[in-house]
TrEMBL record:
<keyword id="KW-1133">Transmembrane helix</keyword>
<feature type="transmembrane region" description="Helical">
    <location>
        <begin position="264"/>
        <end position="283"/>
    </location>
</feature>
<feature type="transmembrane region" description="Helical">
    <location>
        <begin position="68"/>
        <end position="86"/>
    </location>
</feature>
<dbReference type="GO" id="GO:0046872">
    <property type="term" value="F:metal ion binding"/>
</dbReference>
<dbReference type="InterPro" id="IPR003780">
    <property type="entry name" value="COX15/CtaA_fam"/>
</dbReference>
<dbReference type="InterPro" id="IPR050450">
    <property type="entry name" value="COX15/CtaA_HemeA_synthase"/>
</dbReference>
<dbReference type="Pfam" id="PF02628">
    <property type="entry name" value="COX15-CtaA"/>
</dbReference>
<keyword id="KW-1015">Disulfide bond</keyword>
<feature type="transmembrane region" description="Helical">
    <location>
        <begin position="131"/>
        <end position="149"/>
    </location>
</feature>
<feature type="transmembrane region" description="Helical">
    <location>
        <begin position="12"/>
        <end position="33"/>
    </location>
</feature>
<feature type="transmembrane region" description="Helical">
    <location>
        <begin position="194"/>
        <end position="214"/>
    </location>
</feature>
<dbReference type="GO" id="GO:0016491">
    <property type="term" value="F:oxidoreductase activity"/>
</dbReference>
<feature type="transmembrane region" description="Helical">
    <location>
        <begin position="98"/>
        <end position="125"/>
    </location>
</feature>
<keyword id="KW-0350">Heme biosynthesis</keyword>
<keyword id="KW-0472">Membrane</keyword>
<feature type="transmembrane region" description="Helical">
    <location>
        <begin position="161"/>
        <end position="182"/>
    </location>
</feature>
<comment type="pathway">
    <text>Porphyrin-containing compound metabolism.</text>
</comment>
Length: 299
C-alpha cells in the first residue's frame, strides 16, 4: 500500500520542484541586485554569526531566506531523482533528474564562494563566480524541466501540449521584455530584475518543452502534426532558446553594459521573440494540412 496520495503524481511533483527552482532563481537575482549576498559578513552557512537572523526585511534576512529556499529546493531536487529510480521511468527521465542532482553540489559550492569575499575564498564575489552560478542554475532548471516533460503521462506528449508549450515560450519572453534592461519600459531595479528572470525562465521552460515535444513528434509522431512541421518547430524553438539565454546572461552585470552591449541585448531579445512566435505559429497552424498528406516518422 502506497503512502503517497493519489493526486501526487511524478509530473506534479517535478513541476512543483521546477517552479521552486524558478522562484529560487528570481530570489537569487534579487538578493544579488540588492547587494544582500554580502550582508552576512562573508560567512557561510552562518549569517552574521547567527544560524537564523532577525525576521525583519533587511539584507541579512534576504540572504538567509535565499539560502533557506535553496536548501528546501535542493531536497526537492534530490527527491525528484530518487523518484525516477524507484519508479518505472525511461532512461532519459532518470538521466535528466540524476544529472540535476549530480551538479547540485557544484551550484552549492559556487554559491558559497560567491558570498565569501574576503572570507574563505578571497575574491569570491566576482564576475566569474556570478557567471558560473547563473549558468549552473540554468542547467539544473533545464534538466528539471526535461524530467517533468518526459516523466509524466506515460512519457508521451501530444499536439496540444506542443502548442501549449510554444505559447508559454512566447508569453514568457514577451513578459520578460517588459522588465528587460534592453527595453526601457521600467527602471531595471532589483524587483524588475527578479521579474525579468521569472518571466524569462518561464519562457525558457516553454521552449525546452517545445523542443522536447517536437523532437518526439519527429521521431514517433503526434496525430495532427507532420514530421516536417515538428522539425521546423524544433529548429525555431531551439534558436529562440539560444537567443533568450543570451539575454538572460546579459541581464546580469557580467560585462560593462555599454550602448553596444545594450544593442546586442535588444537584438537577442528581438530574435528570441520572433523565433518563438514563429514556432508557436507553425505548431498551431502549419501542421494540420501537412499531416494529412505526409507520413510521420516512427518505429
Amino acid at each position: 500500500m502506497s503512502l503517497r496520495p493519489a493526486w501526487l503524481t511524478f509530473r506534479r511533483y517535478a513541476a512543483a520542484t521546477t517552479g521552486m527552482t524558478l522562484t529560487l532563481f528570481a530570489i537569487g537575482v534579487y538578493t544579488a541586485a540588492t547587494g544582500s549576498g554580502l550582508a552576512c559578513e562573508a560567512q557561510w552557512p552562518l549569517c552574521s554569526d547567527q544560524l537564523i537572523p532577525a525576521m525583519t526585511i533587511n539584507p541579512d534576512f534576504i540572504e538567509w531566506f535565499h539560502r533557506a529556499w535553496a536548501m528546501v529546493t535542493g531536497f526537492l531536487i534530490i527527491g525528484t531523482a530518487g523518484w525516477t529510480w524507484l519508479g518505472s521511468f525511461d532512461r532519459r527521465t532518470r538521466l535528466a533528474a540524476t544529472l540535476a542532482v549530480v551538479i547540485l553540489p557544484l551550484q552549492i559550492t559556487v554559491g558559497a564562494i560567491t558570498v565569501t569575499v574576503g572570507g574563505l575564498v578571497p575574491g569570491g564575489y566576482a564576475v566569474s563566480t556570478h557567471a558560473a552560478h547563473l549558468v549552473v542554475a540554468l542547467t539544473i532548471f533545464t534538466l528539471l524541466g526535461l524530467a517533468t516533460v518526459w516523466g509524466g503521462g506515460g512519457g508521451r506528449g501530444s499536439a496540444r501540449l506542443l502548442r501549449v508549450a510554444a505559447t508559454v515560450g512566447v508569453a514568457g519572453i514577451a513578459a520578460s521584455a517588459v522588465f528587460s534592461r534592453a527595453v526601457p519600459f521600467v527602471t531595471y531595479s532589483p524587483g524588475a530584475q527578479a521579474g525579468f528572470y521569472a518571466a524569462g525562465l518561464a519562457g525558457h521552460l516553454g521552449l525546452v518543452a517545445t523542443v522536447a515535444f517536437a523532437t518526439e513528434a519527429v521521431r514517433s509522431g503526434y496525430p495532427g502534426v507532420s514530421a516536417s512541421a515538428a522539425g521546423t518547430v524544433r529548429f525555431l524553438a531551439a534558436g529562440a532558446m539560444a537567443a533568450l539565454v543570451a539575454t538572460l546572461l546579459l541581464g546580469r552585470d557580467l560585462v560593462l553594459y555599454t550602448p553596444g552591449w545594450e544593442r546586442l541585448n535588444l537584438a537577442a531579445l528581438s530574435v528570441a521573440v520572433a523565433l518563438a512566435a514563429a514556432a508557436a505559429w507553425v505548431a498551431r497552424d502549419g501542421d494540420d494540412a501537412g499531416a494529412a498528406t505526409e507520413p510521420i516518422g516512427g518505429d
